[in-house]
Specification:
Oligomer: single chain
Helix content: 55-70%
Structural class: alpha+beta
Distance between the termini: 46 Å
Number of strands: 6
Shape: elongated
Strand order of the largest sheet: 1-2-3-4-5-6
C-alpha cells in the first residue's frame, strides 16, 4: 500500500535522525568524561573509542524507544500541519488506521530493542569491564606526575621528578592511611625510587633508596621512625578505581534465568523481557497525543507528550528498583505497561467518544 510505504519511510528516516542525535549527545558527554580520566593518567587514551563502542548498546536500549516515539510525534504532527491528515480522514482513513499500518515497523523496532537488551548490552558491559580492568585502570605509581600530589585509594604520592619511562622517581613522598582502626598511618620519605617489573603481578612494586619510614598514630603524639638504604614497597591496585557496573547487568540471559528466584536477578530479567514492549506503547501514545491544529504547529504537543513517555521509562526504572529490594513482584512490569497502553487507547478514541457523549447529553436535556 502506498500510504504504508509513505508512512514507514517518513517515520523510519525521522526516528533514525532523532536516535542519531540523541546518541551523539549522550555519548559525547560520556566521551568528555573519559577524556578527563585519561588526562589524569588513569586511562589509556588509545582505548577511548573502544570503550565508547562497548557502551553504545547500553545507551541505545533507552535511546531507541525515545527516538521512535519522537519520530512518530514529528511525522504525525507534520501530517496535521500540512493538512495531509485532513485529506486522509476525508478518504475514510483515521489516525488509528494509520497506526495499524505502522505495526510491522513497530515490530521491527521491538525486535531490535530485544536484541540490544538481551544480547548486545550485556555483551558490551562484559567487554567494557574486561577492557577497563586489564588495560585501562592504572593505580599506584602509574598515576604519578612530577611535583603534584596524587591520591589513589589509601595512598598519597608525590615525586619531585619522573623519568620518561616512568620507572625512576626522585624526591619521593609517600603516605598511606591505615585501613584498620588502631593501626598506624605510614609516611615514607626517599631520595629515589625505581620500578620493579614483577611477572603475573598487577601490583606496583618499587625499590625506595635512602630514606626514612614513619609510623604515625593520628590523634596521639606516638610515632616510630626508621632509616633505610633500600626498602621495597608493594602497592596493591585500588579496586575502587575500576569503572563500576552491576554484575547482574553483565550476565547473559541464560544465567539470569537459572537464578531468577533472586530479587536482583528477577528485576534485571523482567527489565530485559518487558521493556521492549515500551516500543508498542510508544506507538499507542503517539497516536493518542499527536493531534494538533495546523495553526498550532507540530511541536506544540511534543514536549508534554515527551514528558508522558519519559514518565513511563521512569516508572519502569522505579519498578526495577523495587523488585530488586523484594518489595514487589515481576508482575509490576506488565502492569505499568498495561496502564499506559489502556490510557493511550482511551485517549485515541476521544474523537469518537466526544460526539456520541455530546448527542447523549442533548437528548437528555431535550
Amino acid at each position: 500500500m502506498i500510504i504504508r510505504r509513505y508512512l514507514v519511510k517518513q517515520v523510519m528516516s525521522t526516528s533514525l535522525v532523532v536516535i542519531s542525535l540523541l546518541t551523539l549527545i549522550m555519548m559525547g558527554g560520556r566521551l568528555i568524561k573519559y577524556f578527563g580520566v585519561a588526562a589524569q593518567g588513569r586511562l589509556d587514551a588509545s582505548i577511548l573509542f573502544s570503550i565508547i563502542g562497548y557502551r553504545l548498546p547500553e545507551f541505545l536500549t533507552l535511546i531507541l524507544p525515545l527516538g521512535f516515539f519522537i519520530g512518530l510525534m514529528l511525522v504525525f504532527g507534520r501530517l496535521y500541519v500540512d493538512h495531509e491528515m485532513a485529506v486522509l480522514n476525508g478518504s475514510g482513513i483515521s489516525r488509528i488506521q494509520l497506526g495499524r499500518l505502522l505495526i510491522p515497523l513497530t515490530v521491527v523496532y521491538m525486535a531490535v530493542q530485544t536484541v540490544l537488551m538481551v544480547w548486545m548490552s550485556p555483551w558490551g558491559i562484559r567487554q567494557f569491564d574486561q577492557l577497563t580492568t586489564t588495560q585501562a585502570v592504572r593505580t599506584g605509581f602509574d598515576l604519578v606526575r612530577p611535583k603534584e600530589f596524587i591520591s589513589s585509594g589509601a595512598y598519597t604520592i608525590y615525586a619531585g621528578a619522573l623519568s620518561e619511562d616512568r620507572k625512576n622517581l626522585k624526591d619521593i613522598f609517600f603516605y598511606q592511611r591505615a585501613t584498620q582502626e588502631g593501626k598506624p598511618d605510614v609516611m615514607i620519605l626517599a631520595k629515589e625510587a625505581t620500578r620493579v617489573q614483577m611477572d603475573n603481578d598487577t601490583a606496583s612494586v618499587v625499590d625506595l633508596l635512602q630514606g626514612r619510614r614513619y609510623e604515625i598514630y593520628p590523634g596521639t603524639p606516638q610515632y616510630s621512625q626508621a632509616e633505610f638504604q633500600s626498602y621495597r614497597l608493594r602497592l596493591e591496585n585500588n579496586k575502587e578505581a575500576k569503572f563500576e557496573s552491576s554484575d547482574v547487568e553483565a550476565l547473559s540471559f541464560g544465567k539470569l534465568w537459572q537464578t531468577r528466584e533472586d530479587p536482583v536477578v528477577a528485576s534485571e530479567l523482567g527489565w530485559r523481557i518487558f521493556v521492549p514492549f515500551s516500543v508498542v506503547v510508544a506507538l499507542m501514545l503517539a497516536i493518542a497525543l499527536c493531534e494538533v491544529s495546523p495553526r498550532q504547529g507540530r511541536y506544540l504537543k511534543l514536549f508534554p507528550s515527551l514528558l508522558i513517555f519519559a514518565s513511563l521509562i521512569v516508572a519502569l526504572m522505579a519498578v526495577k528498583t523495587r523488585i530488586s529490594k523484594d518489595e514487589i513482584g515481576i508482575w509490576a512490569y506488565p502492569a505499568v505497561l498495561a496502564v499506559y497502553a489502556i490510557a493511550a487507547a482511551l485517549f485515541a478514541r476521544k474523537q469518537k467518544l466526544a460526539p456520541k457523549l455530546k448527542k447523549q447529553i442533548q437528548r437528555v436535556r431535550s
